[in-house]
Amino acid sequence: PPTLYRASAEQNGGGFTMDGGTHLLCELLWCTERKVIEVTAQMDNADFDVRCSLSMRLDNGALVSLNQVADSQIRAKRQTNIYYGSKGTAVVRGFPFVIEIEADGEVERLSEDELPAAPTPVGDFVDCALGRSAGEISGDTAVHVVEVLRAAQEAARSGQAILL
Fold this sequence. Notes:
By secondary structure, the protein is of the alpha+beta class. The protein is built from five helices and eight strands. The strands form two sheets. It has a four-stranded antiparallel β-sheet, with helices on one face. A four-stranded antiparallel β-sheet has the order 4-5-6-7, with no helix packed on it. The radius of gyration is 17 Å and the shape is globular. The N and C termini lie far apart (34 Å).
């Protein structure tokens, strides 16, 4: 269920993109090991968005679209992520999620239960603090996620592309 900070732009730094978008951006940057160099954005409200559409250009020229709608009434379609790459496609749907990976004409379908447990952010932080791991993402990647989110808010306010 939503927590109090999710209802406050002052406490979470913005709206749904600042809240839920952090996960998607972090996932993108962590998995691709790329940097975003340009952002354009449309938001229903740049200070506390519920709907957002981001377009990003990565440092290798790849284009990324990220669209979020926080007030959908269609609960069965709450989460859909599609990743297109030069060697295959991955589609992630739902909570708990199901992932379909297509490569070389073959499709593999896995449920969340069939995958190894992912580290939790708190568990990852504790492991780092205790010296048991270097962390799932680097500090530079975490900072870059925030840079991209701030650029998205600026792009939505100005209507201009923001270079990073």
